[in-house]
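Researcher: Checking consistency across runs. Here is Dienelactone hydrolase family protein again:
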Amino acid sequence: MSLEFVEYPAKAKHQATIIWLHGLGDSGDGFLPVAPQLSLPDDLGVRFVFPHAPVQPVTINGGMEMRSWYDIKSMDLDKRADETGVRESAAQVEALISHEIEKGIPADKIILAGFSQGGVVSLHLAPRLEQKLAGVMALSTYMCVPEKLTAEAKHTDLTVFMAHGSQDQVVPYGAGRHAFDILSAHNMDVSWQEYPMGHQVCGEELAAIRQWLIARLS
């Protein structure tokens, strides 16, 4: 089943795509307002795609059904990301990327972005893709099965933008730094930004994202 999504169309000829994955309990609509806020130059021809995660029961929330990229059975970081669920969602997102490539958008003009759970899927998928993407944006997030990255990665020269709140009570700051250290140890081009905030995105962060996106897609 293909993922449903909302989109923010390119202002000029479509030349690049940003696929942005939301966090637990949110939907693609949650990040849709960010697209106009970033006010990327029209001539970059950027189309934003905001997929909706499937609705499924989430163990830590008493089995309540909500949009989720994978089940969370425990808040312990080494067990938090359900590997099977992450891989299933990654395969669905990969289908979206393939669709963009079929439409004529080259992989080096595609950015995969994700917040929290969405960032876990993005960091998992991008190094394992056949094609090398223009970059990955991992916001307030952590890694699933980092110990398997060495064996499974097809690209270790990815460019990654990471940002995290120093007061994040949902995904601890240390979890983000651990992901940064793992990616850096694989010689990826990883930049780290931190902000005095909780589990959210702030204006200063959006300004940094804008600069990074323009650099990656120009």
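Researcher: Does this match what you'd expect to see?
Model: One thing to look at in this run: Residues 77 and 215 are 33 Å apart (CA to CA).
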